[in-house]
Amino acid sequence: MPPPPTQPLKKPKRPKRPKRPAYSQDFPTAHHATFNYLGFVAWGDIANLTMYRTRRNKLVLFPKTRPAKPPSDLQLQQRAQFTSAKDDWLALAPAERKQWATAAARASLCCTGYNLFLFWKLTADDSAIQTLERQTRTTLLP
C-alpha cells in the first residue's frame, strides 16, 4: 500500500507591519514635543545642531561640526562668483526674469529661470543660450 500523498508545506504569512504616522514619535531627544506641536518638518542646521530624518522617519540630531580649516582661495572665489550672479539676477526687471522662466519652461528643462540664468552667468556659455533663444523664440541675452 503506497504512503498517503503529502501536501507541500506552506510558508506562514508574515504579519503586516502597522503603518507609521507621518511624523514618528521615535525621536532620540526631548526636542520632539516642540517639532510635533509646531507642525513643521525641520532638517539641516538649526542653532548648534544638525538634524535629518532617516528612511524610517526617525529624527537624528547631532552637534554641528565646524570646518577644520578656513576656506581656500578657490572656494572664496567661487562664492564671490555665485554671489555676483545672484545679485545680477536680483537686478533684472521682472519682465526679464519672466523671459528666463519662459525659456526654461518652453525648452522643457528641469530647472527654473533662475537656475538657467545662474548657469549662463557661471559658465559664460553664450552659444548655449543663443541656441535656447532660437528654440524657444525668446530674447534672453542683452
Element layout with pairings:
Blueprint: H1 32-38, E1 44-46, E2 49-53, E3 59-63, H2 73-91, H3 94-106, H4 113-123, H5 126-136
Antiparallel strand pairs: 1-2, 2-3
Question: Describe it for me?
Answer:
The chain is mainly α. It folds into two domains: 19-66, no CATH class; 73-136, no CATH class. It contains five helices and three strands; from the N terminus they run H-E-E-E-H-H-H-H. It has helices at 32-38, 73-91, 94-106, 113-123, 126-136, and strands at 44-46, 49-53, 59-63. Strands 1-2-3 form a three-stranded antiparallel beta sheet, with no helix packed on it.
Number of helical elements: 5
- Helix content range of the residues, please? 40-55%
Element-by-element helix/strand order: HEEEHHHH
Class by SSE composition: mainly alpha
Give the amount of beta strand, in percent.
5-15%
* Biggest sheet statistics: 3 strands, antiparallel
Total number of distinct structural domains: 2
Strand order of the largest sheet: 1-2-3
* Structural Rg: 27 Å
Instruction: Choose one word for the global shape.
Output: extended
Low-confidence stretches: 21-34
- Please tally the β strands and state the result: 3
Concise overview:
The protein has 142 residues and is mostly helical. It has helices at 32-38, 73-91, 94-106, 113-123, 126-136, and strands spanning 44-46, 49-53, 59-63. Strands 1-2-3 form a 3-stranded antiparallel β-sheet, with no helix packed on it.
